[in-house]
Amino acid sequence: MTALDEPPPAAPGAPLLEARHVVQEFVVRDHGGVRGGVVQAVSDVSFEVREGETLGIVGETGSGKSTLARSILQSPRPKSGEVRFRGVELTKLRKGELLDARRHVQMVFQDPFGSLDPKWKAARIVEEPLLAYGVGAAERGRRVRELLDLVGLDPSLYADRRPRQLSGGQCQRVAIARALALSPALIICDEAVSSLDVLIQAQILNLFEQLRAELRLAYLFIAHDLALVKQVSDRVAVMYLGRLCEVGPAEEIYRQPLHHYTRGLLDSIPSPDPKVGRRRPSENLGGEPPSPLDPPSGCRFRTRCPRAEERCAAEVPELRTLAPGHEVACHFPLEHAAV
Amino acid sequence: MTTAEAGRLAARDEHPAHQLRRFDDVTAPVLLDVNDLRVRFNGGGRVVRAVNGVSFSVAPGETLAVIGESGSGKTVTSRAVMGLLPPTAQVSGSVRFEGRELVGCSEKELRQVRGRLISMVFQDPARSLNPTMRIGAQIREAVRVHEKITRQQGRDRAIELLRMVRLPSPETRYVEYPHQLSGGMRQRVMIAIALACRPKLLIADEATTALDVTTQAQIMEMLLELQQEMGMALLLISHDMGLAASYTSEVAVMYAGRIVEGAATEELFERVRMPYTKVLLDAIPRIDRPSHSLLPVVPGRPPDLSDLADNCAFNPRCPRVTERCRVERPALEEHEPGHRYACFHPHRAEGE
């Protein structure tokens, strides 16, 4: 089998990626290396991504969404929990095997300049993963041209340019071409379009959409912008302080959120239509997220929740299904009117 | 719409800042009057024309949004108003504040204006605060520059300001350092410093861009309340159309160093004329759009500011371009009452 052969497909019906009870913690050191506290970055997160599906993850700064992405790639490995990709348990793999598995899960980062080597030409950047997996020279050259073409960069113009000779949007296209080099099944986009201007952002979003259709890619799309996530996602997971509070079909989450936090987030988005006026300023979302060093007991959102009661402090709400495919982690969810 | 929302909207419309003001209305008082502002940077053997003849005015208590992508000249314009450009910048044109010309003023004269009459809040609160100074000292300093006050008066004033920007437990925060605060709290401190001398104009340059949506909503609501209390004008520099639509009364859209469209907020969003504004609005992901829909996009990117021709700068990307746009530059004129735009082939909605 050459390096670019298609991997065996997963058993029918099985999810492409499955995360179960993933926990990631970091120890903070005080002066002199004294153990200062534990940042509970990701606490007991479970979700799945099916073949060809886009799962969006939204959350504010510090909600643990980037840490979650890295835990999936085992970089670093999560403290506990299971991450299965096509049925293979990644957390148990040894280094060499993990390298092999990672071929099918690639990542696109936020900063297009920071994630490309400034001294390398675009063609070499895109070629590197092929080299690492032992693809022959002739095949590499052909594949690099094909990839650049696929992301909308004319190989004859851009193959020999270095990142500083490219704009932000073009750099992001190179990063996407690099991620596609090994024909992955899943791409993790961590705020991949957040630093781009509106018009360039729209171009890249359309590129993601086109690649999804052509290559049957699945995405894990992480962003803080709810509208952006809606644009690309089949399903959306809302994250707050290391836990998922709501998971469900994109249309439904935005039309009828069940969690008070999701409602607050939606109300905070300024609408590009002055007739809508300012939404209710989210009085229910006063204050700021507490520190992940010392998250509130029970429901982590309770300190900002308008509906919080004693039970919320005592008992951690588990995700439970309230409508088909729509789960919420709340003791007192918003009304779900039958539509 | 709930009754609470309706009430809020009505209150917004009654506020004088939200009533439509005509550009040619000479009787309207003007706080800031920018006329034919041009900024060039020489360097590396090229001349970068960042701002090319920008004119706008801000009335007392008004909220104007200047919208544009990176490189459109919106930040350079705001810095030129404050006299904060590096010495390599060549500024021409006029910036009048309460009738007083600011272009060409000495640094000493500018210091009389900055902070006292015009204040600015920047995008990155972490880098705008001094990491080695306590919060309280930084606010006190802002007051002391313009007023003679004792240490105790300074303390009282600083705590009052922190309370005004709704920072929880201001007495504790007063003795803390910037690193002990979250991004949203730091931005509140920046606003407290900017408002220390009750300026007549506050320039917010992408002031909420780095913040989360919930924090952004809190800060914007607070800014608007303070603005009404103090009768202060607000110049909002942003790339976010949603922010402009929700929080301002007047909008100017910039492209390649020029204003290409300007009108009262509701007028502009209801009757978009300039194809660039239209394209910008259409390209924003919106929660009311179905998932996986393709966004209408235009190819290409903004022009090189060191190589601008005397034509419409948007012509290579414009869906409505004709030969005339390539050889002639449309002037920014008030084609409709209260609505300025620079375009030969303005967009019209169906039925107009």
Helix content of chain B: 25-40%
Strand content of chain B: 15-25%
pLDDT averaged residue by residue of chain A: 87
Chain pair forming the biggest interface: A-B, 52 and 54 residues
List the secondary-structure elements of chain B in sequence, H or E.
HEEEHEEHEHHHHHEHEHEEHHHEE
**Sheet/helix structural class of chain B:** alpha/beta
| Unreliable segments of 5+ consecutive residues of chain B | 1-5, 7-25
User: Main sheet of chain B: which strands, in order across?
Assistant: 6-7-8-3-9-10-12-11
Gap from first CA to last CA of chain A: 51 Å
| Rounded Rg of chain B | 21 Å
Largest sheet, strands/sense/barrel of chain B: 8 strands, mixed
Write up this protein.
The complex is a heterodimer of chains A (339) and B (352). By secondary structure, chain A is α/β, with parallel strands linked by helices. Chain A is built from 11 helices and 12 strands. Chain A has helices at 65-72, 95-102, 122-132, 137-150, 155-158, 168-180, 198-215, 226-232, 250-255, 260-268, 310-314, and strands spanning 17-29, 35-49, 54-58, 80-85, 88-89, 105-108, 186-190, 218-223, 235-240, 243-249, 320-323, 326-328. In chain A, the strands form 2 sheets. Chain A has an 8-stranded mixed β-sheet, with helices on both faces. In chain A, strands 2-1-4-5 form a 4-stranded antiparallel β-sheet. The radius of gyration of chain A is 21 Å and the shape is globular. Chain A starts with 16 loop residues before the first strand and ends in an 11-residue tail after the last strand. The model of chain A has no long low-confidence stretch (mean pLDDT 87). Chain B is built from 13 helices and 12 strands. In chain B, strand 9 (250-255) and strand 10 (258-264) form a beta hairpin. In chain B, strands 6-7-8-3-9-10-12-11 form an 8-stranded mixed β-sheet, sandwiched between helices. In chain B, strands 2-1-4-5 form a 4-stranded antiparallel β-sheet, with helices on one face. The longest helix of chain B is centred in the middle third of the chain and has 18 residues, at 213-230. Chain B has 352 residues and is an alpha/beta fold. Chain B has helices spanning 3-14, 74-82, 107-113, 125-128, 135-144, 151-164, 170-174, 183-194, 213-230, 241-247, 265-270, 275-282, 323-327, and strands at residues 32-43, 46-58, 63-67, 89-97, 100-101, 118-121, 201-205, 233-238, 250-255, 258-264, 333-336, 339-341. Helices cover 33% and strands 22% of the residues of chain B. Mean pLDDT of chain B is 87; it is low at 1-5 and 7-25. At the A-B interface, helix 7, helix 8, helix 9 and helix 10 of A face helix 1, helix 8, helix 9, helix 10 and helix 11 of B.
